[in-house]
Amino acid sequence: MNTVIDAHQVSKTFNPTTIPILAVNNVHLHLERGEFTALVGPSGSGKTTLLNLLGGLDKPDKGSIFINGVDITKLSPNALIDFRLNNIGFVFQSFNLIPVLTARENVELIMQLQHKDRREINERVETLFREIGLEDKLDTRPAQLSGGQQQRVAVARALASKPQFVLADEPTANLDSKSATNLLDIMAKLNQEENITFIFSTHDVRVIERARRVITLVDGQIHSDTAKVSTEVPHTAQKRTP
């Protein structure tokens, strides 16, 4: 395995000039390629903030975040946009699909921004929609899709650029049990077959049970970091050193 993320002494404070809220407090985190990891903890524990920091959507007040050896905290805004485009996939709780575009067009957009040729785009879209089981919904707009279908399209969009890893913020929160299970099956399959790293921010026990590593945040700090010994014995665990 090779290192995807190395975060060192990362902190983030909101409202520093009024009533400061220390959302992430001196976090150290190391993730290897192919991990399937859940960030858990009570509301306000810093899960989403940490996810946004790892994805370069927010910038830490202090500390460094290395992705594939690149310190993203030192990149210019334009360089950071390019880096995210080519290295990181995002899946949001609210789907964030563009309503005027079809499912196909939503997934194609990121590859167009990467200046891929049309043949490569078509092949990638067909492969992804086959993986998510929505080959018959390519030309359907988001409003005509169920919540579970929209989230599967969002996963396809996140994977379109062939990212090093995917950050998913509460990806099952708005889904019924069957849709959530289907979505997790898809992501677990992609993780195992393509060695794509997945990092979830979640309260959902279904996600936590499927994760092979569970990191618990409390008050912006890593409270525990537990890796499952074997996927075949999911309730047996060993402690990692945070």
UniProtKB/TrEMBL annotation:
CDD domains: ABC_MJ0796_LolCDE_FtsE (cd03255). It comes from the Bacteria. GO terms for molecular function: ATP binding; ATP hydrolysis activity; transmembrane transporter activity. One of its GO terms (cellular component) is membrane protein complex. Residues 5-242 form the ABC transporter domain. Keywords: ATP-binding, Nucleotide-binding, Transport. It holds the Pfam family ABC_tran. The keyword Nucleotide-binding applies. InterPro entries: AAA+_ATPase (IPR003593), ABC_transporter-like_ATP-bd (IPR003439), ABC_transporter-like_CS (IPR017871), ABC_transpr_LolD-like (IPR015854), MacB-like_ATP-bd (IPR017911), P-loop_NTPase (IPR027417). Belongs to the ABC transporter superfamily. Macrolide exporter (TC 3.A.1.122) family. PANTHER family: ABC TRANSPORTER ABCH.1 (PTHR24220:SF86), IMPORT ATP-BINDING PROTEIN (PTHR24220). This is ABC transporter ATP-binding protein. It comes from Algoriphagus lacus.
